[in-house]
Each structure stands twice: as C-alpha cells, then as structure tokens.
Amino acid sequence: MNKNERQSIIENELTKQGYVLITSLGEKFQCSEETIRRDLKEMEQAGKLTRIHGGAYLVDQYDTTYPADLRLMQFPDLKQRLAQTAMKYIRDNDFIMLDSSTTCLALASELIKSGKRVTIITNSLLICNACNDSTNNVNLICTGGEFRRRTSSFTDYNTIDMLESYHADKCFISPPKVTIDFGLTDNHLSESRVRECMIRQADTGYLLLDHTKFDESAHIRFNGLENIGMIITDQQVPEEWEHYAAERGITIEYCEE
Questions:
Q1: Which domains does the chain have, with CATH numbers?
Q2: Integer CA distances (angstroms), 57 to 2, 69, 70, in order
Q3: Global pTM value
C-alpha cells in the first residue's frame, strides 16, 4: 500500500471516529509506527489533523478536548503517581466524587486495587466500567445523563441533578487548565458544570494536576479555587502559586518520583 492510499484511509478513519491511534494504524497497514508518524506529520502540515502523543485527532471548532482514547495514552505513569498520592487522603467508607478525567480513572484503579471500601459517584463511563469489573469493595453510583462520546462521560442537566442529590466527603477533579487569574478552566461548558457541581457538593475538593496544566487557560471558566483544599501535582509550582495557595489555605502536595 502506498502513502496516498494510507493517508486516504486515515482520513476516512478520522471522519468516522474523530481520532486515530498509531498502534492501531500500524497493525492495520502492516507497517512500522515510524511510517505512520511520517504520514501523520505530512497530514498535519496539510491542515488535515492535529498530532498528539500516540495518535492524531480532528479538532472540533468549539471543543478542543482530546478524545478519551488519546488522553489515556498521555503520561500514564505520571497519572498513576498522582493517583497513588491522592490515595493517602481516602479512608474506608468515604463517599467520593470523581470526574471524567483519565487521572481520576487512574485513581479509581488504585482504589479498586487497594481494597478500601468506598462509594464512588462519577460521570465517567470508563470509571464505571472499571468498577464493574472489580471486586465488591467499591459501591458505584453512575450519574447517567446525555453521553458525550469524545470524553466517554455523561454531561447534561440530568447529570447535575443526580450529583446534587448527594453530599460527598471528597471530590477529585483534573480540569484541563488552571491559572491564578481565571481559576479552573475547561474546554466544554457541560463538562465544566459537572466539575463545578462536584466541588460544590463535597466537603473538600482535591485537584490532580500534572505540570502541563498550570498557567494556561482553556476557554470556559468555572468555579474558582476558593473551594479547593489541596492541589496534588508532580513538579515544583512557581513561587506565585505557592504564595497564592498559602494565602487561601490550599495545601500543595507533590507526588513521589
């Protein structure tokens, strides 16, 4: 199969599902992943897609969120470290809310492995599937609502209504971006409202943020940082963040290497 034929098929795959994975394309075409990367690079230069680690996707004009399958491939070891640090603050019989981030999926996996008895309420189908396959230490509540395929999450007014029926000990969220000036920001309005509701319904809010999420803003601002009790991250934050957190009683916790 020549380059033009491969790239035509890649375009068709993008049209059908919005993204492609390098590993899947390599298997499909029976060629090296390096060949696929060259194809994707050429197609990006032609304005046909946006590349990301592990694959490529079509950018929605109004929603720049990475598709869930691609987000799963971003920093998996780092997400596990953030999740393992968050585990220190979860106790038996806690009622916790988890958002649809892949970092919270890593946290759910750690909870399942730990054997801690907790109740999880989430709008993430991926987390629901993980808990469904687990032992019975996790009591699962799925919010339901309109399904958003791009993030494998439920995000409409029914989702909010369900969350507002509960009071949580803790919520853990990982929004796309956070800044001192604008606070927590998201790429999708309905998703931002779900995260905002989780913070509102929990005694303590925890942010799980890798270093790439600081000091850039997404386009939709939601709840500020005033209801957050702890930020868990992987690298030393800038000095202004340390001052900001200290003034507002926000603890900054660093995960171990």
A1: 3-59 (1.10.10.10), 76-254 (3.40.50.1360)
A2: 22, 10, 8
A3: 0.78
Rounded Cα distance between 165 and 77, Å, is 34
**Which of 122, 130, 140 minimizes the C-alpha distance to 201?**
122
φ, ψ of residue 90 in degrees (nearest 5): -115, 130
Q: What is the pLDDT of residues 185-222, one digit of tens each?
A: 998 899 999 999 999 999 999 999 999 888 778 889 99
CB burial readout 60-75, b (16+ within 10 A) else e: eeebebbbbbbbbbbb
Longest dimension (CA), the chain: 61
Write out the two tokens for 142.
Answer: 């799925």
pLDDT tens track for 62-106 = 556 666 666 666 678 999 999 999 999 999 999 999 999 999 999
Tokens of 117: 């008895």
